[in-house]
Amino acid sequence: MTESIAIQDMYDEPAAHCYGCGRLNDVGYQIKTRPDGETTLTEFVPEPFHTAYIDSTYGGLIASIIDCHSTGSAAIFAMRAEGSTIGSDPAPRFVTAHLEVDYLLPTPLAPIRLVGRATEIKDRKVIVETELWVDDRVTARGSAVLVRIGSE
Amino acid sequence: MTESIAIQDMYDEPAAHCYGCGRLNDVGYQIKTRPDGETTLTEFVPEPFHTAYIDSTYGGLIASIIDCHSTGSAAIFAMRAEGSTIGSDPAPRFVTAHLEVDYLLPTPLAPIRLVGRATEIKDRKVIVETELWVDDRVTARGSAVLVRIGSE
User: Homologous superfamily of B2-149 in CATH?
Assistant: First the structure.
């Protein structure tokens, strides 16, 4: 059951106002990232006005949701590496030091799935690689370096 | 006088609906990028809700405005390289193939200046490096690979 809890719902209050993923930011995207087997999953539906060219999703939005998906994924992967339980143990917080996005194809203005994998977990640093899927195609890839903050 | 015209106001209609820089997207950011000597300049004021932690600007927004600033800057640099005049000649359109952002410091929730430089202009490809300034500090750096689209 705990596997269905979104990591962002476990962030402490100072981190809960993020425009991308804060549950207390009423006008933000409020993305939710959950463990999904060995990977992480974020699902997001762009609004009709989130356009680049009409019918494609704005690249800045893609970078934004990859960013928050990556910080959330880093927290999930770090907790797993430490044997912590998502939903009961405190969630660590990560910030983005470096973000890269490769735009491979136009992303249709349609439901998006972000799949995250950790390629490095070391001390306070986690690297998360992300595939952005629409239907059966990967239209963008992300890579982010996340750094743990706060006391622990 | 033509130097004060924003490149985004010269985009043809299909490109004018972008959430980041389209003049016809009523709910978007509508950023404006102008030539500024040898560089390009975009000024942007985040809204109070564009937060990461409270008092800092959301990293996804930073990536977004660097993205659109970079496509606009690529058009400006390409036009200059070709001897075209911004404001009277048609503006070429570029899309982002690759975007990188280094988050160097927390960016205060305050007016932002993006300064762009071209480091490569070759055939249909332009590389734009961006500094993000708040007051007298660079808090983030961007690098983008832009590819020209459309007929010319």
Answer: Hotdog Thioesterase (3.10.129.10)
